[in-house]
Design goal:
- It is a single chain.
- The chain has two domains: 99 residues, no CATH class; 273 residues, no CATH class.
- The protein is built from 13 helices and 15 strands.
- An eight-stranded mixed β-sheet has the order 7-6-15-13-14-12-10-11.
- A hairpin with a 4-residue loop joins strand 10 and strand 11.
- The termini are far apart.
- This is DHHW protein.
- It comes from Suipraeoptans intestinalis.
Length: 382
């Protein structure tokens, strides 16, 4: 036993020494594909920053994020803790049957109040525009029976109902909570990722279709697997289930002749598909939908109607929007986390006559960007 412990200790020290030597000669990374987030960069050294303590805080975050081999270290660390019975790492629970569940975070009250107030004011400025809200509960809420024993979380159902009660009656509610509850025994969330699966999205789309009066035929869609090698962001963030491989499946119309052009406004590039197949071979296969998150996308179709939709969203909407193209002349997707402009400007520029807010619970209740995006454009002084 002692000999085994000594061997583990030698390996541990060797790894640490190697990482320390390699650290200074390897370039910093800007993005972690494994964790699907931006990494901290080396902070600027200033006199004020040192005195205030901000420099050291930022530098600690920088060292933590840019630590050479941090991916290997995270997996190693999670494995050791799991041996000791740990079932939580970096806000991710290892649940029953290998289901990974992102922790349900309590809402940031100030952010939520600002967001709801912004949505209500926005609707008041455009009473003639049809507005809808779809707030999707996370797997940690719907699949509570899969949580580790003794884990108790804040009720996201109560949070969602609270938002519904505070929203203006002029913003129509699309019921995602009930839909996900009704189909919880099916594969509606990935096991290793925080997003909903193609099946979960499809059921939510059918509900949206009823509210938006879309001419839908459920039997007109067929499910196609595009990869069986997906390992999601929760696995990479936590180090749990790194060997788990899942399917990504698309629900496509059996007959759809809709043509469209997707304009990536910020990057000034265009594509004729909402799918980026090359992403299936990267660390984040979910980016097969539009290639990931972008600040602003403009989708123009050959549909002969006058429906022009503004889709205010997080990444849950990336797999939802392909269902909408046969029914809208134009769809403008905006992610306020990355977009520096204003909602009023988009309404005017694109002649929007419908709006859909589509968010997952954890993002919506922690996001402080939505309210600012919805503020009215300030008129210049005369």
């Amino acid at each position: 036993m002692k000999r085994g412990n000594k061997r583990v200790g030698i390996i541990f020290l060797t790894v640490i020494l190697a990482l320390a030597v390699l650290g200074p000669v390897i370039r910093d990374k800007k993005i972690s594909e494994e964790e699907n987030r931006t990494l901290a960069q080396r902070p600027e050294l200033t006199f004020h920053g040192v005195l205030s303590g901000n420099f050291m805080k930022k530098y600690e975050a920088y060292v933590s994020d840019q630590f050479v081999g941090r991916s290997v270290w995270r997996i190693f660390h999670a494995s050791l803790k799991r041996i000791g019975g740990n079932r939580e790492e970096n806000g991710v629970y290892l649940g029953k049957n290998g289901q990974l569940l992102e922790k349900i975070e309590p809402p940031k009250k100030e952010y939520v109040e600002n967001t709801v107030r912004g949505m209500n004011d926005f609707q008041g400025r455009y009473p003639e525009v049809t507005m809808r809200m779809m707030l999707v509960p996370d797997a940690g809420e719907i699949l509570q029976e899969k949580l580790p024993p003794l884990v108790r979380q804040a009720s996201q159902t109560d949070m969602i109902e609270g938002v519904r009660e505070e929203l203006s009656p002029g913003i129509r509610w699309v019921e995602a909570q009930r839909v996900m509850e009704d189909h919880k025994e099916e594969n509606i969330y990935y096991k290793t990722d925080h997003h909903w699966t193609g099946t979960g999205v499809f059921y939510a789309f059918l509900e949206y279709g009823k509210e938006a009066e879309l001419p839908l035929d459920e039997s007109a869609y067929k499910k196609y697997p595009v990869t069986t090698q997906f390992n999601g962001a929760l696995s990479k963030t936590s180090g749990f289930r790194r060997g788990e491989k899942e399917k990504i499946e698309l629900y496509l119309p059996k007959e759809d002749h809709t043509k469209y052009v997707v304009s990536y406004v910020e990057n000034q590039k265009k594509r004729t598909s909402l799918y980026d197949e090359k992403q299936l071979d990267t660390q984040n296969g979910y980016q097969v939908f539009q290639g990931g998150n972008y600040s602003l996308l403009d989708i123009r179709t050959d549909v002969k109607n006058t429906r022009r939709l503004l889709l205010v969203k997080d990444s849950f909407a990336n797999s939802f929007v392909p269902f909408l193209t046969p029914f809208y002349q134009e769809i403008v997707m905006v992610d306020p986390r990355y977009y520096a402009g204003n909602a009023d400007e988009l309404m005017d520029t694109y002649g929007i006559n419908e709006v859909l807010f589509l968010y997952s619970g954890n993002t919506f209740f922690q996001d402080n960007n939505i309210g600012g995006f919805l503020k009215p454009v300030e008129s210049g002084s005369s």
